[in-house]
Amino acid sequence: MGTIESVTIEVADTAAAEAFHAAAFGLGNRVRVRASQAPTIGFRGFTMSLVVSQPASVNGLIGSALDAGATVLKPAAKSLWGYGGVVQAPDGTIWTVASSSKKDSGPATRQIDSVVLQLGVADVPASKQFYLDHGLAVGKSFGSRYVEFNTGPITLTLNKRGAVAKTAGVSPDGTGSHRLVINGDAGAFADPDGFAWE
Question: Which of 99, 115, 142, 145 keeps 20 to 30 A from 22, CA to CA?
Answer without folding.
Answer: 99
